Amino acid sequence: MQIELYEACVRCHISSLSEKDDVKFYTIKDKSMTHNVFENLMTQVVHYTTTDFAECNCKNFQRIGILCRHILLALNAEDVNEIP
């Protein structure tokens, strides 16, 4: 979790944000290193603001049970102080 938090701060930024009703759609630009080369990966985070539920198309949480840097960045942008 600490690594994901660090990566959210250092390698990721919000590229775009759109909103429909109580749902926010984030496009996150993630400058990750793969095979010793930096790549710009784009991920999508959907944040349901009424429940503070968020999901990301990287599926890190579903695969290994750790909240991904992309969701952490989106929740931080929304001033969510506790992980739901």
From TrEMBL:
Which domain of life does the UniProt lineage start with? Eukaryota
Per its UniProt record, what InterPro entries does this chain match?
Znf_PMZ (IPR006564), Znf_SWIM (IPR007527)
Is Secreted tagged as a keyword? Answer: no
* PROSITE patterns recorded: ZF_SWIM
Which Pfam families does the annotation name?
Answer: SWIM
Q: GO molecular-function annotation terms?
A: zinc ion binding
Q: Which UniProt keywords apply?
A: Metal-binding, Zinc, Zinc-finger
Query: Which positions fall inside the SWIM-type domain?
Result: 48-79
| The protein's name | SWIM-type domain-containing protein
- Which organism does this sequence originate in? Kalanchoe fedtschenkoi (Lavender scallops)
